[in-house]
Amino acid sequence: MALLCLPLGALAQSTGAPVYNVNDNDIESRLTVLERKVDNRSQMQHRLQQQIDNMQNELDELRGAVEVHTNQLQKVLDRQRELY
Questions:
Q1: Could you tell me which residues come within 8 angstroms of residue 3 by beta carbon, excluding any fewer than 6 positions away?
Q2: What integer pLDDT is reported at residue 56 of this predicted model?
Q3: pLDDT tens-place string over residues 22-44
Q4: What sign does the CA torsion over 22, 26, 28, 31 have?
Q5: What's the DSSP call for residue 13?
Q6: Quick one: which H or E segment has residue 71?
Q7: pTM value?
């Protein structure tokens, strides 16, 4: 009966924001999915970092080989100039 005494405006204001029934299972499953996504992304980032490190090492080796071959070529050219 007390509800009947409220003005219509007060009744409209008391409704507030909609309330959703969220199951704990739904929240748990969503949390599990998010945790799985974070783990997958972390693993992918780790693999990518390993690939970058491996490529950097290969690049360093190639630069070293280029430097060695450049020096060898320079010696051959210098030797040819001496002979002719």
A1: 11
A2: 99
A3: 677 899 999 999 999 999 999 99
A4: negative
A5: H
A6: helix 24-83
A7: 0.58
